[in-house]
Write a structure and sequence with these properties.
This protein has 104 residues and is mainly α. It has five helices and no strands. Helix 1 packs across helix 2 and helix 4 runs antiparallel to helix 5. The two termini are 27 Å apart.
C-alpha cells in the first residue's frame, strides 16, 4: 500500500510541475508521505519546502556541496494552489486523493 501511495504522490507532484527528482526528494528526504501531512501545511511551509529542495545544504558522497534539485516558481505556485484545493475539499467534507489534484 505504501508503494501505491508513493507512486500516486509522486504522480501528483509531477502533474503540477515538479521534476521527478524533486517529487522523489519530497517523498524520501522530507518524509511527506500522506495526504494528512499536506492538509497540515501552510503556504509558508510550501515556501520553506521548496527552498530546502533547492539548497539542502550538506555535501554529497564525494565531498562536494549538495546541489539540491531544481524547483520552478510555477511548480511552487501550483503546489500552493493544490494545497488550497486539498484543504477546501476537507472543509466541504469531501474526500480527496492524489489523483484528484490536477492543474485544470
Amino acid at each position: 500500500m505504501a508503494q501505491a501511495g508513493e507512486a500516486a504522490s509522486r504522480a501528483m507532484l509531477q502533474r503540477i510541475g515538479f521534476t521527478q527528482a524533486a517529487a522523489e526528494a519530497i517523498w524520501q528526504n522530507q518524509g511527506i508521505d500522506s495526504m494528512d501531512e499536506w492538509k497540515a501545511m501552510k503556504d509558508d511551509d510550501i515556501y520553506t519546502l521548496c527552498k530546502v529542495l533547492r539548497r539542502p545544504g550538506g555535501t554529497t558522497a564525494g565531498g562536494a556541496p549538495d546541489p539540491g534539485v531544481p524547483v520552478s516558481a510555477r511548480a511552487e505556485t501550483n503546489l500552493k494552489l493544490a494545497l488550497f484545493f486539498i484543504k477546501h475539499q476537507e472543509r466541504v467534507s469531501r474526500d480527496v486523493t492524489y489523483a484528484d489534484v490536477t492543474l485544470p
